[in-house]
Amino acid sequence: MTIPTFTTYTPPDVYVADVTTPIITAPGVAAQVMAIVGPALGYRTANESFLLYSATGAQLSFQGVFTTAQVGPPPIAAPVVTTVTGVVLTQGVDYSFTVTPDASGNPALSITAIARVATSPNISDGSQITIVYNYADITYYRPQVFTDFQSVLNAYGPPLVSVSPTTPGASQVANPLSFAAQIAFTNTANTIIALALNPSVGNLQQQLQAAYAQLSTYYQATIIVPVFTDDLTPTSGTVSAYAATLAGDLKAACLLAASNGYPRIGIFGLPRNYSESAEPIVTLASSLKTKRIVLAYPEIVQVFNGLTGQVFNASGCYLAVALGATLTSLPVNTGLTRQSLDGFTGLTQAEIAAMTTSTLNAMAAAGTCIVYADRNGALTCRHGLTTDMSALNNREVSLVRQADTLLMQVAAGMENSGLIGEPITPEMPAIVEGALTSILEQCVNTNIINSWSNLTISQETFPSGDPTIIDCAFTYVPAIPLNYVQVTFSIDLTSGLVATQSAQNAAAA
Predict the structure, then answer these.
(1) Residues spanned by CATH 3.40.50.11780 within the chain?
(2) Which residues make Cβ contacts (< 8 Å) with residue 504, sequence separation at least 6?
(3) What is the pLDDT of residues 7-23, one digit of tens each?
C-alpha cells in the first residue's frame, strides 16, 4: 500500500506502507596489497624442441625473443641450439631466425621462428633440435599478482648472486624486484603486485613514471614501493638530488591517484650511496610533506646472502618494502609504530653510532619513518609517520589508512546499491540514508572506524543547487594509536616497621 498525498479527496481509512530501507552489503574490507615496482632480471628463459626444416620455420612459443646476446644491463645471453647428440649449432651457419614485428612496434609482441640453413654442414633437414632462449613478452612488463615467492622466482629469476663479487663492497642483489618480493613475503605479506620496469621506456626515472601510470587504476594497490639497484646512478647531478627527484615522482603519482579516487600510500626508501651531507634527511622529508608518502630511514641495511655466506650492505628501499609488507598484513586501524621487520641482519655500526636521540627526533619531527635496532638487536619501526606532520590525522599512517579504507568502502557500497539512475521519489532521501547507514555500521563492525554520527541527507534545490544531487555528510571517530603511556610514582615512607610480641611470649614473661 502507498501512503496517499492527501492533496485530493481521500476517504477516511487506515493507510499502511512498508518504508524499510535497503540493507546494503559492502564488498568486505578491501585487501591491502602492496605494489613493488623496480628492475628485474629482464628476461625469462624457455626450453623447446623442434624438427628443424629449411623450407618452413618453427615458431617459438613466446613473443619478445632475444635472438642475439644483449650487453645490458642486464646482460642477456643469445639462444643456444643443440642437436640430440649435444652438438651446439651456429646461428647463420646451421639455423636462422625470422622475426615478425608487431604493428605497434612493441618488441615484446614480436613473433620469432627458427629454420634450418639449407647449406648447414652439421644438421640435416628434419632433424630434431633443442633451443634454450630468453624472452620478455608483453606480460613481463605488466603488473602481476603473486601469493608466494616461488612464483616470483619462476617469473623473474633469483634475487641474489650465487658467487661472491670480486669487488669489495659490491652489491649482492642480482634482481631488485625478486629480492624485494622475498623481503615482502618474509614480512608476512599475503599478496603482492610486482611490476618490472621496462628499459625500453627510457632512464630509471622515466621507467618508474611509466610503472606508476600502469598502476594508476589498480584499486587493490593501496601501497606503492619503488626499488632500484643498490648504487643508484643519476642521469645528472648528485645521487641524493636524484633520489629526491624520484621521491617527488612517487609523491606526484600517489597524489594523482588519490585525486582520481584511488587512495594509496607511497613508501620511499633511499639508495645505499645516498649522502646525507648532500641532502639532509630533514630537508628531504620536509620537501615531500604529504600524508601520501612515508620516507624510510636509514639508507643502508645489512643482509646475509646464504649463497655466498656473506653479509652485505643493501639499500634502504628494501626497508621500505618491509614496512609496506608489514602494513598490509596488519588490520586497517593498526600502524607501523613498534612493528618489527624481518629478513635483515641489522644496521651498520656507523649508522647505529649516528642514531643519537637528538638526531632521530629531528628527523622524526620533519616526518621521517625511522627503523632502529632495539635492545635485542631486532629492527623496529620507531614511529609510523608520514611526511606530513601538520596534524594528527595526517602524520599517523594508521589514520591515513583508516580514512582511505572508509572512502573506498563508502564508494563501493553506494555504487553497489543500484541507486544511481533511479527516480528521486519522496522516499529516496530515506533510502539513501538507510544505504549509507548500513555501510557505516559495517565499517564499525569490521574495525575500520570506531563510530560515526551526525549523518545528514538532503536533496539540492533549484536554482541554488542541482536537484539531481542528494548530499550526504557524516562524521566518524577513528582508532587513535596509543603512542605514549605516562606513569608517575613516588616513595611513601610514612609507615615504618612495627615490632609485635606474640601472645605466647607475653604469657611467659
Answers:
(1) 33-39+142-400
(2) none
(3) 777 777 777 766 555 55
